[in-house]
Amino acid sequence: MSVDPSCDCGWPVMSPDAANRVRAVQNRLGRLRELRQITRDAPDRLRRDAAIIDYTRALDSLIEDLGALDEMGVLAACIRRLEPCKGQSPQD
Fold this sequence. Notes:
Layout: E1 2-3, E2 12-13, H1 16-41, H2 45-72, H3 74-82
Antiparallel strand pairs: 1-2
Helix pairs in contact: 1-2
């Protein structure tokens, strides 16, 4: 992650790969929600079992994406962004 020299905010800018990973995480979360609902409401065992298998695969991919984002420093940057600066209250 780097700082955009054309912006004076000082916040790091995500690489295109990091941004794509974040989008993939969002998409996988949506898919996991769908599969969880299918698993709960499946009319038959075959459909439920297939949804469980898909859920497991999507969850594995999500974990890989989160690991890659952590290695890229995206998660650490998010934590730094969310924490208040020393000496300042969260309302500042």
